[in-house]
Amino acid sequence: MNRNTHLDALRAYAVTIVLGYHAFPAALPGGLFGVDVFFVLSGYFIARTIGEGQDFHPLRYLGRRLIRLYPALLLVLAATFVAGWMVLLPRELSDLSLATLRGLVFAGNLLPGSADYHAPATQEQSLAHLWSLGVEMQTYLAAALLLPFLVRRLGAARTYAAVFVISLVGAILWTEDAGAFYHPGLRAWEFSAGALVANLRLTCPPRPALLLATLAAALLPIMPSFAHPGLGTIPAVALAVLCISMAQAPTRRPSPPAAALLGRASYSIYLWHWPILVLWGLHDLGPTGPGEAALALFLSVFLGLVSYGLIERPFLSRSSGRGVGGAAGLASFALAVAALATGITGGAPGRLPPDAAAFIELSRPSHPRLAECHVIAPMNLAPSRQPCSHNDDGTPVRIALWGDSHAAALAGGLIRAEVAFREYSFSGCPPAPGIAPAARWAECVEFNQRALKALEEDRSIDLILVVARWPLYAEGAFDNGRGGREPLPSPVLLAAADQPATAEDLFAGLRAAAERLTRQDKTVLLVAPPPDFGWPGAEAEARRAWTGQQIDFSLDRARHAARRQRTIAALENIARMPGVSIFDPDPFFCRTASHCSWTAPDGTLLLEDQDHLSAAGADLIVQALRPHLAVR
């Protein structure tokens, strides 16, 4: 198969916009569509290789694909793991170890580190980009085993058309499902589009189509990325089809040599760029400026070209895979053992100096019965069907704690203070019956209904502490403006399974719950949440201690006040009801007019992560709550 430099130029375009998207997402929101262009190209080459299915050898084809993909992948996996060992904290390195094992078997899309590719947490996963390689390899496997049979029975055009229609319909129907982004079956229509171009030998005279292709190529990177992999992906697929059709037309003029070279090295460049960007950002613990991002991309292109010249080309030039399999197998086994051992040890915490290791210990939840008493859907719904009683000495328990993971963080302090109480806590589930995030709506609504009913009926309970991270539900994910961001996407509130809810609905649900409890002669104490800082408190301090970087982790007080304004107004309004009061821990964090700090005056760390109280923080707040906990 002769090399078509125009297709290499299309590869160069695709990898360029992907790199641009990852380095400058605000400027090039549609750059992610470059991956879809690669999928169409892959489908084109799959169809050309299979032909009519008569002389196709599946094992030979898969072996050739492995020789093409695996050596460069193995090099990047090993280099990323070594770099991670040098700069990542234990939790991060443990995550990288698991991602490395997934990458070794092309499973980056089957067990992704984040269900939502666009979630901020993905920005911390240095191998998250391997999802596309997983889709590619799984498509190659399905193509080798199934397509020859289908092509011989139905004909190539009918087979590819059927796959195109079925997959596209599925992609449209399941676009809203976060897992659809990674699903090879819902990406098959993109491969099929390229396969149809190859099978039907579609050609488009370059001159008339050049203006359209140029305009589309210019607009695609700045288009908003939406409805992946359904309707929103059609412009990228259409552009790829148009460009491949143009490339198939007879022409005497090859693409510029630089574009062709960049296209040939696009695979290696793609492999390198994301780990470099992620590790750079994690090491600096701040926003990657335009200059740093450009430098990271330059390094990615350089390493990609070197990898192509020294790894990809030599392996591809071999007439067979003899010797390749054994060496790759040994190297893969060694890397897998190292990754597995690192994961088992929890990210090799012994690498860190003592002062950094001490902060890592503070990042662990201080609740001694967290797995037993705190619901983290869907992992441990069953153990928490009944409330946990803490420090129960047989006398009537008069205090209850109800809320989300912020309640669980405060529970540790109550336990250490030997306060007898019952705990009803569910991660990501605000104590506002009838209102819940879409991701866990049914479980959260059921949990809150059960908790509220139990609290109403328990005659011994006369004080309920209600604790939740209200600004997250009311305002969405937090960005501190200095590189610290909420690692999870903003929750979408629902009042019913398919009925959106507002912040006003949320606080109305809280008010209704408070009214029901006070009617039973119970006192409700609304405990406001601590500030959101954006950075993971204990881990951020550990990295600062490890690297010696002088980083200011303080939070702008005006930004914090603006974020919590609606929450505090709503809580204060509810606290005007008889039997309801509010406790605000803000003075412990915001001790100056301009900034808030996650450390106490003596330097004690008050948060374990972006927003949850550390053991010391929980102990401090419980001590301040003592007057409210006094017996009636």
Q: Roughly what percent helix?
A: 55-70%
The DSSP helix count reads 23
Instruction: Report the portion of residues in β strands.
Output: 5-15%
Provide the low-confidence segments as ranges. none
Mean pLDDT equals 90
Strands, total number: 12
Our Rg estimate from Cα atoms comes to 28 Å
How far do the termini sit from each other?
86 Å
Secondary structural class: alpha/beta
Q: Please state the overall shape, judged from the principal axes of the Cα atoms.
A: elongated
Largest sheet at a glance? 7 strands, mixed
Could you give the topology of this structure?
Elements: H1 5-23, H2 33-50, H3 58-87, H4 90-104, H5 131-154, H6 156-173, H7 188-200, H8 206-219, H9 234-248, H10 257-264, H11 266-284, H12 290-316, H13 324-344, H14 354-362, H15 370-373, E1 374-375, E2 388-390, E3 399-403, H16 405-416, E4 421-426, E5 436-437, H17 441-457, E6 463-467, H18 470-475, E7 493-496, E8 499-500, H19 503-519, E9 523-527, H20 537-547, E10 555-556, H21 557-574, E11 580-583, H22 586-589, E12 595-596, H23 615-629
Parallel strand pairs: 1-4, 3-4, 3-6, 6-9, 9-11
Antiparallel strand pairs: 2-4, 5-7, 7-8, 10-12
Helix pairs in contact: 1-2, 1-9, 1-10, 1-11, 2-5, 2-7, 2-9, 3-4, 3-5, 3-11, 3-12, 3-13, 4-13, 5-6, 6-7, 7-9, 8-9, 11-12, 14-20, 16-23, 19-21
